[in-house]
Amino acid sequence: MTSRSTLLMAPALAWLTGLMVVPCALVLALAFFRRGIYGGVEYTFTLENFAQVFDPLYAGIFLNSARIAGTATLIAVVIGYAAAYAIAAAPRHRQPIYLFFAVLPFWSNYLIRTYAWIVLLNREGLVTQFLRWFGYTGEPPSMLYTEGAVIAGLVYNYLPFVILACYAPLSRLNPELAEASRDLGGSAFTTFRRIVLPLTLPGIAAGAVFVFVLSIGNFVTPALLGGGRFQMIGNLVYDQFLTANDWPFGAALSMVLIAIMMLLLTLQAFAAERASGRATVREEAV
Amino acid sequence: MTRTLLAIDRVTKNFGRIAAVDDVSLAIRENEFFALLGPSGCGKTTLLRMLAGFETPSAGKILLDGKDISAVPPNRRPVNLMFQSYALFPHMTVRANISYGLEMERLPAEKIRARVDEIMATTQLSQLADRKPEQLSGGQKQRVALARALVKRPRLLLLDEPLGALDKKLRGAMQMELKRLQHEVGITFIVVTHDQEEALVMADRMAVLKDGHLLQCDTPHEIYERPADRFVADFIGVMNFCEGSAEQYGVRAANDALIAGTLPDDLSPGSAAIAAVRPERVALSPTADIANRVSGTVEALAYHGLDLQLHIRTALTEKPFLVRVTADAANRRPVKAGDTVEIGWAAEDTRIFRN
Fold first, then answer.
1. CATH number of the structural domain spanning residue A125
2. pTM over the 0.80 mark
3. Chain A closest-CA separation from residue B276 CA (Å)
4. B148 vs A179: CB contact, 8 Å cut-off?
């Protein structure tokens, strides 16, 4: 590295070191200490915190989080891919407008967007009113503070990521590839299954990993829409630090969570790397 | 005469208010190598896409073996298209690309294997079976695209600018290769090209299109020798043009010289006309019996190996007159830039068009 490029990278490196590497190292270190009797930290080395993470009670919360995040991911991928497909199939000049609308929710605050779901789903909320408008007279459906509400919130918040991630390979896909498949005798469905889907899989993988990683560590959505009844790993970490005052255990939970995320992101990066070796999605039409 | 395989019957295709193909009728014969030729935007690709099934005609019919296929979707037509971009599936090997079409027909695996092996041998791809498209050269990709379409044994193979992506030297070799293959597999080929030389070399018959209209359909020889109008004359090969007005026995040029020739039926004396002559029909120092003669100054010479191209400034035309003489002729009568020469051509070599 030349001295010039070192100089140019310095601010970014300082930022990352000060605000990412050091805090992470601190949390990592914290995970190996003992909890003080009246809260606080006792500086003696222990692996107990990690052992506790794999206690069936907490492991169950991990699994529960993974299940909720997985469901949200699946739904987001199905809806997001369909939306991206529709946008990519629209006339070229209109695609930026549709994409703009797809990412528009990002321009408002995550908390506000999640609160909006409370307005929608609560017992006398918009959904109930909508049903009443159509003549529904029974008990208002209990939608808020359910697992479904948490999943809906996660899907809603992370859908734009999937749309963007899937749109990129779909818009770059040479339309002649699908035509060639049709020409060779493939039905519309076969063409999708054997040509379009495999060639846009990297986008799906990227979007899915994004949604899953962001969902499994999420604590705002389960807190607001799950009403605290459906604890996810993020809520548990939050509780350890701010309620139970067990910082070392909270740190150990965080580390395991970060490890899971890192593993998924790395796998996805490897897969993308391998796919980019073969996916010359659009061949040059000279 | 062999029977008609494909009949294009008064086909029109409108995109909005523009007619990309306007009332075109063509009959393509069994086992013919047919070329659709025209500048970009002439409608040749739209016509091809209608034959493949990607577009439906706004009016008219497309008959294959006498049956109207205008509304049949592309995957149900015994017609295959070789795309200009080749459109090879990038995630599949050469073998998988070629097998794809037969898998769609649900043939048994061993049968697919046998037919794919056979076509890969014919197209010299056997060594490349396990390569991915990105590991192939342009010429190899082109052969895979061809093999992928041919293995389906279509009644009709459509080729969209099949040699467009290849460099010039390879193109020449592939022109002969395509002709050989077509003969070997006995499939009717329709090639779309903007390259008139390519069409002349490969096609048994060809159609010249412009702005969605069919201008002329005939053998390359007839089209070269007897172009239907000024556009075709200009588009196919090289022509010297001289504007003037029609007279009974030729065209009166701007400098008052009469270019002798025969008027076409649609032209009467007095109307605006243009006389044309191919550079290779013009001789240096013409013999006394040659009707059209003019003197000029040699401006430039270009040596092409077999022949010599001269640019000669004459009083007849504003642009220099192009003359092509064989190397032998040039040796007999050496010329250099600045020389004053006399050139001439016979009255039967003059072509006259409405202007």
1. 1.10.3720.10
2. yes
3. 35
4. no
